[in-house]
Each structure stands twice: as C-alpha cells, then as structure tokens.
Amino acid sequence: MLEIVNLLFIPFVSLHIWYRRHDMKIEKNISTLTDYIFWVVADLVVCVLCMTALKLVAGMGADPDSITYTIVDIFFAMILPYIHEVFRKYFEVRVEITERKEN
After folding, report:
1. At 94, phi and psi to the nearest 5?
2. What is the dihedral sign for C-alpha 35, 41, 42, 47?
3. Digit-coded pLDDT (tens) for 22-56
4. 10 Å Cβ neighbour count for 25?
5. How many whole angstroms separate alpha carbon 79 and alpha carbon 81?
6. Hey, what's the torsion of the CAs at 16, 18, 20, 25, to 10 degrees?
7. pTM to 2 decimal places
C-alpha cells in the first residue's frame, strides 16, 4: 500500500510546487497529465538512485514499502521542482540541423 502512495500521491507535491511557482492552475487536461507523469518518473528515478547509492555505500538503503523511503521521497518531491528550475534556467540544449543528406 505504501508503494502506491510513494508512486502516485507524493509526486503531486512536486506538481503542486511547480504549478505554484509558475502561477498555473491544476486543470484536467493532457498538459497537466504529462506534467504529472514527468514528476512521477523524476521522483521515482531520483529516489531509487538515492536508495541504491545508500545501500551500496553505507548499507542502509530502504525498500519502496518502508516509511524511510516515503520520508526520503517526500524530501525529494519538495526539492525537485527547484532543481528542475535551476537546470532549465542555466543549462540549455539546442539542436540545429544544417543540411539534409539524401540517399
């Protein structure tokens, strides 16, 4: 049961913070769904990587069905929108296609 909370409900914290920082409303549309899916994946990846690193380095990682994982997940859900904003502001990825090669 705790895995469902960690996977589905905690990313709402990130979504809520992101929408508040950009003065947006949470509406029922495809854009909000894609934003929510982004925060679910980002939160899951960061938390799993953190727990795996803790298990390898210190031997004290946690499984997704533990309260320790939930606390760490909530912490990352609260700081990930700010980290994402810093990356969007200071790092830019640009792709430019100069010519098209025909075979």
Report:
1. -130, 130
2. positive
3. 898 888 899 999 999 999 999 999 998 988 888 88
4. 7
5. 6
6. -70
7. 0.78
